Amino acid sequence: MALENPNPPAQTSPLPERLPAAPAETQPSPELWAGQPIDSPGVTEPKPQKKRILGIDLARGFALIGMFTAHFGLDTSVEFADPSTWGGLVNGRSSILFAILAGVSLAIITGRTSVYSGQKLADARVKILVRALCIFVLGEILTSLNSYIAIILQSYAVLFVIALVCLRLRRRWLIAIALVWAIIGPLLAAVWEPLLEPFGLGVPMAELFIWGAYPVLTWIPYILIGLAIGRTDLTLRKNQVFLVVLGSIFAVMGYTAVGPYGELSSSHGITEEQFSQDQGSVPDKEIWKDFESMSEEELLALEDSDFGMPSAGETIAATLAAWDTAEPHSNTPFEIVGSGGFAVAFLGLCLLIAPFTRLLLAPAIAMGTMSLTVYTLHVVTFRMVQDHGVMDGGLAIWPWLITIIAAGAFALIWQNTLGRGPLERLLNRILLTVTGVRSRSKH
């Protein structure tokens, strides 16, 4: 009688027809060589940040240098036929380039060519609002210094806020609205305040929106054009060339339309430095000195006086009649198209040459990476020297050169040692504190 095996063999599953091959030894992926973390379950690896576009920084740096030049008294009126006058291109056009670059920056911080949506876009809008508020406050602080410089930051901030409603628009719509507003904006600026004045209604912050150095109503096209440009892949050579060509066409159209010789400044124009002095703050004691010496009867008589100011109808007619110019700060459709086109072409040129001149033009590029800091330092130092007569008699060559050299050296040293500029670093910290999201924008 056979004995049963007390330990029967365990049941085994049939072998698969083909065993899985052992994993082949592979080289580490480029991400590992780059020091990026290996994917873990439930962890999404962040997308790598896009590189900074040097051409934008270069354009911003040149815009700063142009503003330095205008503020220190270069008053040349520009004509196409006379190359010796081309230095006057800085008047008015440097600030317009800044406004267009503001639109480009908005496009970059909201997704570049792929616009954010949903919560990501909402977060970006909050950050833009906070950024605009900080820039506006800084602008008010700089304005309180009573320098000759008309501060651009307040208009810059308001344009940021206005552009929020256009972030999702396609490029064709942004361009179309900008072109239409190039006519509507100056019209509104011409008729708005005079029409409301007879009813005792003023325009809130009229200087900021209508008749200041950088009136928001007529500057809206610049930031919209910049936003459309920022939605384009600016790293492609063909797009850079297209900006140069298209901008040049619009510049020629805008400037030559005002006269047969294509004058960029009319004989009754003013320079940016003169405009800044006219717009600068004046101490209250100087304004009221004459009024304090008047009798009560003389003051009562002033209530019915129009101080020689034109009526609403006369103001509108005079404004429309003065549209045949593209002079700096005229804010006419011709200036918007001409100077806007010039700024676009110049931006395209900077994008083209930046990769080949990054060492030669490193100081200007560094200035462009911290434009808020450099601009603020310029206003403060300008205020310190303006009362010493350095701006008398045309371009103050030595203060101008010292400012450019010092700004370039400071920006270059700071960038290579500490990275982000001091005010840019402070702004990023404020954004992080308020929104809880660190700004990752490279611009």
UniProtKB/TrEMBL annotation:
Keyword Transmembrane helix recorded: yes
Is-annotated flag, keyword RNA-binding?
Answer: no
Keywords, comma-separated and alphabetical? Membrane, Transmembrane, Transmembrane helix
In this chain the Heparan-alpha-glucosaminide N-acetyltransferase catalytic domain maps to 52-236
Q: Where is the composition biased (Low complexity)?
A: 14-25
Sequence ranges of Pro residues compositional bias: 1-11
In residue numbers, the region (Disordered) covers 1-48
Transmembrane segments in this chain: where? Answer: 54-74, 94-112, 124-142, 148-167, 174-192, 208-229, 241-258, 336-354, 359-377, 397-414
Q: What is this protein identified as?
A: Heparan-alpha-glucosaminide N-acetyltransferase domain-containing protein
